[in-house]
Specification:
heterodimer, A: 217 residues, alpha/beta, 4-stranded antiparallel sheet, B: 790 residues, alpha+beta, 8-stranded mixed sheet, 25 helices, 62% helix, 12% strand
Chain lengths: 217, 790
């Protein structure tokens, strides 16, 4: 499903280039869940962005569904994301001018796979059925994160990438949202990679990979 | 994908209707004023073309009477028999309508816009005339009229026999000389000594004469268009800032950059097309409202007839439409480039505009300096109307770009001197808002400067014009005669009564290669006491009276660059020096004044067609003249009436300018309203902390209002010097290029203060709604800032 090999990434800085990832490799099979942990600045989010084709590595390769993402142009990477990858961001990144219902179906509609019955099931499972006609600004943080998860799952992705999906939520809400997400991921058969600081979240995944100073430890 | 993406993009406007309104309204206003002005110009030009085609003016040489306005039918017959290929024309009136009779068989092909080939004119067709719908309506049941929209406005065409019958005349007005003439035809002086040949070039081209008038209108249209585009530019900028997050999300969810950019361009251009279409409809309405005044102006100033009905011509609505799209595309290009260059994971937070403010202010300072320097160079070297308008553009845009820089320094000045914390925050916050408000403030500056400049120009012109009328219309009564006999009889009668008369002879001529008018005057105390020269020799009138010199009007002096001391070829064998140059604000043509004796030598068969008469009792004298000389009441006019008529023409000339002035100011106020409204939402995070530490919403609302009025006052202060510079350019440069005269500049401080009050009221009204909205902002909305849930 996802194969990252010897990826390196550095950013320009006034003091020179700062390495963020140094020869990181990992593999994730269909149906597997993986937690990426590590201190702030260890390169977790950068690795997730590279896996999603949002950023390009300086060296190494990324394969999703056996396609070399690093060799793709912007358009091909966008097509791959649209069809096979879904993202859940810490800041939710909902579209404020669309209703909750339209936000949920948005990525699926982009890829032409919208299924209103499935979206209704997801909304129901995430407790959003009575919020569909509202706009994101009227929802609490926990509700907005559920909408983001519903949007990601409604696209029926093969690979779900989540960056601190419960980082903005209180402990109780975060746990509930995580359980719902894992339950739905298992049912869909997608692979899940989660970036988290939380040991409790990491413990809920099949395995954990810790990054430190841009390397797997 | 495309549908979903478009729905997402368009949803922004549904959730931000004020912004959508600002975008559409900005485009609509820009397009409306531009296309309205172009509609007027297009209608006028179409009328000139129709007139040129209908009347054949400027196309063919003509034979016209040396005196009077009548040619006997026998003269025409004699010329034809002598081999002259001429065609008769009768130019007469039927009620209020000008009626032209032509002879279809002998007239040149295409003459009068109607030919035998299209079957429109049939010789001897009884009582049938051809005219456009308006003229046909005006003619009523005086004649059978076939509507033909090719005929010039205000004119009816018919077979000459028909027109003679309808008007009860049996003579002719002129003879059109066909381009091809047989060799060896008899000399004109031999066959028709009372006629003279008027070359086609000697007739002033109306389209050329009115070019400057239309260019002035176009300049105003362009100014309004620019002000409207400021709104569009500001709205596009804000919409893109607010949609940065959406754009990032859409790209992250799998929409390729190229697709997204294409869809954004399609979305913005489709909305622009809607705004432009609304603008074109509004432009049509504006043009229809202004056209009667413009038509009156053109008739009064240039004698040009313009149709009172506005046509929906592609040349103006299409140009307005395309210009609006082009303006939008230019405003859009920078933002699209930003999206294309923006990393996918760039911050989605709407950037406070102030972040890029410092760099922008630096660039604006450089651009302002460059443009103002270019304006300074153009003041010295600008030659020709286009370059003078380029000078105006450099001055106005340079001034506008300098405004935010000056404002920023002013705000820093106040900030450094503020001692109370609230005021320190207020000045700092105002400076932070400056980048977001600067486009609207620039629009206000342009509008107020244009008002100061144009009103100074018009008022200076009015003062000068009134003075000019007092000089030129010193006689208390004016009379016009039809024939040499009537002229002699009137002169003899008044001389016998011991009344001072000023007989005026005139004839068209070609001087220094340009159409001009030669006037023959009897030099006397009235001229000596009243005429004020721009430049003159000490004994100017004496030398003119002795037939040694001439007086030239300013138009001729400037166009031919001939001044006091230079000599002018009056006729092939007469060259006389200029002893004085006189200001002349009544017509755009060159004029030369000579003594009556010189004139009589030049035009021996001429007679005085007009008389100025000095009297203390004009009504009584009118009655006496009517009784003893036989002049009709219509042939005489009092000084007061002619002055009133002239001033009315003057006032109507500037009605359109005044209307455009008010509209431009309205657009600027609208720009401020839209900027404040659209900024209001972005300002909540800046205001919430101040509110949280104890400043009430009511106080914040009052401060918002104070800020707007304060900035308006600063703009007004900057607009005064800019407007006066504009006035000087209009008076000293544009007028010279457009009309051939330079006007003295007067200042009108009270008018400026009044304008300042209007501008501040407009700004206060524009700021009132956003301030009221701030006062009504629910605490929950302010608290969200601290919950990081915005």
């Amino acid at each position: 499903m996802l194969k990252i090999s010897s990826v390196e990434k550095s950013y320009a800085h006034e003091d020179g280039r700062i390495p963020v990832l140094q020869g990181v490799s990992l593999a994730l099979e269909q149906g597997q869940t993986l937690a990426l942990t590590g201190e702030s600045g260890s390169g977790k989010s950068t690795l997730l962005h590279i896996a999603a084709g949002l950023e390009s590595p300086d060296a190494g390769s990324v394969h999703v569904l056996e396609q070399d993402v690093t060799a793709m142009d912007d358009s091909a990477r966008a097509n791959l994301r649209r069809r096979d990858i879904a993202l859940v961001f810490q800041q939710f990144n909902l579209i404020p001018s669309l209703t909750v219902g339209t936000n949920i179906s948005f990525q699926a509609a982009l890829s032409g796979t919208a299924d209103s019955a499935y979206e209704a099931t997801l909304a129901d499972a995430l407790g959003l059925s009575d919020q569909l006609s509202k706009y994101p600004e009227a929802l609490s943080g926990g509700q907005q994160q559920r909408v983001a998860i519903a949007r990601a799952l409604a696209a029926r992705p093969n690979l779900l990438l989540a960056d601190e999906p419960t980082g903005n939520l209180d402990e109780h809400t975060g746990a509930a949202v995580l359980e719902q997400m894992l339950d739905l991921v298992r049912k869909s058969g997608a692979a899940l990679m989660v970036v988290t600081h939380s040991p409790k979240v990491a413990a809920r995944m099949d395995r954990t990979l810790e990054l430190s100073g841009g390397k797997v430890v | 994908m495309i549908r979903s993406c478009l729905i997402a993009l368009l949803s922004h406007w549904r959730r931000n209707p004020v912004q959508l309104f600002a975008y559409l309204a900005g485009l609509a206003i820009a397009t409306a004023l531009w296309s309205g002005v172009q509609a007027i110009n297009s209608e006028a030009r179409s009328s000139y073309d129709a007139a040129a085609a209908t009347l054949g003016e400027g196309q063919y040489d003509r034979l016209i009477p040396k005196q009077g306005s009548v040619i006997a039918q026998d003269t025409y017959v004699a010329l034809r028999l002598a081999g002259w290929l001429v065609s008769p024309v009768l130019d007469t009136q039927l009620g209020e309508t000008r009626v032209i009779g032509v002879e279809p068989v002998t007239s040149p092909t295409g003459f009068a816009g109607l030919t035998l080939t299209d079957g429109a004119l049939t010789p001897g067709d009884p009582d049938r005339l051809f005219a456009n719908a308006d003229t046909a309506k005006a003619l009523g049941d005086r004649a059978r009229v076939t509507v033909n929209e090719n005929v010039a406005p205000g004119v009816a065409i018919g077979d000459i026999g028909t027109v003679q019958r309808l008007s009860g005349r049996d003579d002719l007005s002129s003879l059109v000389v066909l381009p091809e003439q047989p060799i060896g035809r008899s000399n004109l002086e031999t066959i028709a000594p009372d006629l003279r040949l008027q070359p086609s070039q000697q007739v002033a081209d109306v389209a050329q004469l009115t070019d400057s008038f239309h260019l002035n209108l176009t300049a105003f249209g362009l100014l309004s268009f620019a002000v409207g585009l400021f709104i569009v530019h500001a709205t596009i900028g804000l919409a893109f800032e607010q949609r940065r997050g959406m754009i990032r999300t859409i790209r992250a969810l799998g929409v390729p950059l190229r697709t997204l950019v294409t869809l954004i361009v399609v979305e913005m251009m489709a909305l622009a097309a809607i705004g432009a279409a609304i603008g074109i409809v509004l432009g049509y309405v504006i043009a229809a409202l202004l056209l009667p005044d413009v038509a009156a102006t053109l008739r009064g100033l240039y004698g040009a007839e313009v149709s009172g009905t506005l046509g929906f011509r592609a040349e103006w609505w299409l140009s307005g439409f395309l210009l609006a799209l082009l303006g939008t595309a230019v405003a859009l290009a920078g933002r699209i480039w930003q999206i294309a260059a923006m990393p996918l994971l760039a911050s989605a937070r709407p950037r406070a505009w102030v972040m890029s403010g410092a760099a922008r202010l630096g660039a604006q300072s450089v651009a302002a300096l460059a443009l103002l320097s270019a304006a300074a160079v153009l003041v010295i070297f600008a030659d020709g109307l286009i370059l003078v308008f380029a000078l105006l553009g450099c001055l106005l845009i340079g001034g506008a770009l300098a405004l935010p820089v000056l404002t920023s320094y002013t705000l820093s000045f106040f900030e450094q001197r503020a001692t109370r914390p609230l005021w320190q925050w207020f000045w700092a916050d105002t400076r932070q808002q400056l980048p977001g408000l600067s486009l609207a403030l620039m629009a206000l500056l342009l509008a107020v400067s244009a008002n100061v400049g144009v009103s100074t120009m018009v008022s200076s012109f009015r003062l000068t014009f009134v003075g000019f009328l007092d000089q030129r219309l010193a006689p208390e009564l004016f009379a016009q005669v039809e024939s040499a006999e009537q002229s002699a009889k009137l002169e003899a009668y008044l001389t016998a009564q011991g009344i001072e008369i000023l007989p005026l002879r005139s004839a068209p001529a070609q001087i220094e290669g340009r159409p001009a008018q030669v006037f023959g005057v009897r030099v006397g105390p009235t001229y000596r006491d009243n005429w004020a020269f721009l430049d003159a020799d000490a004994l100017a009138w004496d030398r003119v009276a002795q037939g040694e010199a001439i007086i030239a009007n300013e138009q001729l002096a400037r166009r031919a660059n001939l001044w006091v001391g230079d000599s002018v070829q009056i006729s092939p064998d007469l060259r006389l020096p200029i002893v004085a140059v006189v200001g002349d604000y009544g017509n755009p043509q060159g004029q030369v004044v000579v003594s009556k004796d010189v004139f009589a030598n030049l035009y021996p068969d001429s007679f005085a067609g007009q008389f100025g008469i000095r009297t203390n009792d004009a009504p009584a004298l009118r009655a006496q003249i009517a009784e003893h000389v036989g002049l009709t009441e219509n042939a005489m006019i009092n000084q007061g009436a002619i002055k009133a008529m002239s001033l009315e023409v003057f006032e109507r000339t500037f009605t359109v300018t005044a209307a455009l002035n008010v509209l431009t100011l309205g657009v600027a106020a609208f720009a401020i309203l839209m900027s404040l409204l659209t900024l209001a939402d972005l300002r909540v995070p800046q205001l919430a902390p101040v509110w949280a530490i104890g400043v009430t919403r009511a106080t914040l609302g009052r401060l918002e209002l104070f800020r707007a009025v304060g900035l308006g006052r600063l703009v007004f202060i900057c607009a005064i010097p800019l407007g006066l510079a504009l006035a000087w350019i209009l008076l000293a440069l544009v007028n010279v290029e457009a009309f051939g005269w330079q006007l003295p500049m007067f200042l009108f401080p009270l008018d400026y203060l009044q304008l300042g009050a209007y501008a501040l009221v407009a700004v206060a009204l524009a700021a009132a709604w956003p301030a009221w909205r701030l006062v009504r902002t629910p605490p929950a909305a302010l608290l969200k800032v601290f919950a990081h849930e915005r």
